[in-house]
Amino acid sequence: MDKDIILAILLEGITMDNKYFTIIILILTAAATLLCGCYPKRVGPLDPEGKQLTWEQMDLSQRKAHMRQKVLPVAADVFGTWQPERFARVDCSLCHVQGETQGIYDMPTAALPRLSGALLLGPEFDRAPETTRLKLDRLVPEMSAALGVKPFSIITRTGFGCYSCHLGPNGAMFGN
């Protein structure tokens, strides 16, 4: 069946005047703004006023503690359920290779494999589909939540995503 015919069948009998349609669009836009505008989330220790700190507000020692207590267990779970033998023990060096030895925690880092920079990670899916899917479906959203930062949006090309940790072919991408 032709796409246009299917769409016509689905829309048959559905009519909206401009006023009703405008109200729906305004409501959906307001809801999206409210849901997306809640970043950064407060995920850290309490400030003197009793409010949790955001990632950006934390100092280095608070960030290290947050990474050990909140972020590392998430990474250990994701990688451990994927390849339990290989990731039986996960520590900071999984992502921050030079962290404990040299005190370098900057991300993205050249210590992790570079990504292709291709739209929708085509070469990564061709080379390692299971790994790429795991990272997109679990690791990125769970890391984003643990850090209290907005997840990556392919539309705006901003937020926490693959290139928050990995470099692209020519270096950092998407403002990371």
- Compute the CA-based radius of gyration: 21 Å
**Beta-strand content estimate:** under 5%
Count of beta strands: 0
**What string gives the helices and strands in order?**
HHHHHH
> Counting H and I runs of at least 4 residues, what is the number of helices?
6
Quaternary assembly: single chain
Q: Uncertain regions: pLDDT < 50 for 5+ in a row? A: none
- Please tell me the overall pLDDT: 86
Briefly note the structural class of the backbone. Answer: mainly alpha
Cα-to-Cα separation, first versus last residue? 45 Å
Q: Give the proportion of residues in helices.
A: 40-55%
User: Can you summarize the main beta sheet?
Assistant: none
Write down the overall geometry.
Answer: globular
Molecular structure report:
The protein is mostly helical and 176 residues long. The radius of gyration is 21 Å and the shape is globular.
Key terms:
176 residues, mainly alpha
Topology, pairings included?
Layout: H1 3-11, H2 18-36, H3 60-82, H4 99-102, H5 122-127, H6 129-147
